[in-house]
Amino acid sequence: MKAVVERLVQEHSLTKQDLISLLSCCDSATFSYLRQEATRIARQRFGFGIFLRGLIEVSSYCRNDCFYCGLRRSNRSAERYRLSDEQILRCCEDGYRAGLRTFVLQGGEDGAFTDARLERLIGSIKHLYADAAITLSLGERSVESLARLRRAGADRYLLRHEAADATLYAALHPSDMSYSNRLQTIEQLKELGFQTGVGMMVGVPHQSVESLAEDLLYISRVQPQMIGIGPFIPHRQTPFAQSQAGDVRLTLMVMAIARLLAPKALIPATTALATLSNEGVRQGVLSGANVVMPNISPLEVRGKYDIYEGKSQAYNQNIESVKRLGAELESIGYHIDLSRGDF
Known about the structure:
Layout: H1 2-11, H2 16-24, H3 28-46, E1 49-52, E2 54-59, H4 85-97, E3 102-107, H5 115-128, E4 133-137, H6 143-152, E5 156-158, H7 166-172, H8 179-191, E6 195-202, H9 209-222, E7 226-231, H10 248-261, H11 271-276, H12 280-285, E8 291-292, H13 299-302, H14 319-330, E9 335-337
Parallel strand pairs: 1-8, 1-9, 2-3, 3-4, 4-5, 5-6, 6-7
């Protein structure tokens, strides 16, 4: 398998069969070598700095009914909330004071966040913090909507593809959600000039090694600017409540392969990874990740953004938590990079 990893390092691509073989490999030497090379490539491109993204979870309302998500509209026990513009701007103020220069506005597909409202909000953030980047993660929207948000000043958009395998996509979503529309929206984001992010969960029900290989081939073709990969974690109020969580080791392997397929991408050590492992941030960075996303949402709503069970609250908006993260990174030879970290 070392020869397969070497080919991946040199060519930044593999065949589907090679990806399947690599993902199926349980050999510890191959696992270590793969992560070592992913880390080396990330350092070569970005140095030892880890970019921070201030995550603001703006709404727990969602029109969709995805089978894996605690925010699904069928979850009648979910505590719903919706931040006001004033609350969002206060989060940005706190984050900016802590040194953050990217704000990620993430939420369910909530009709209250109209184009006109988002245009005003984006304009306000840009006026107050002209040197900061704005990332949106608000689900699928029409191309007209996305064009308006781009013109308003949004820089980046995260829209996980969830599954490059159409059969798996259908197994994770209700029939009113479209696999082709999801992929088309990602293409539209790229055409509009957004720095575009995709991604998927590792270990979600019905996923096979073959479908994971398809995800990685999709990443290789699209060459997104951002790639979000984390382990699946079940939620008690979903059809997948009794399913097992994704495997941390396999997640780290997939992250490392993604780094080698897309050397220039921004890849976070996700909150889901930190939820399943106290070493999640460090191990993610040592698998090629170069982004961490501290949660700067208001404390009173943070537990309500309940997409899966037991979400880690390791890093929040106060300056002490940012210092703690800095110390954790320094323990493995890295440091916080407070620049925007553009592609």
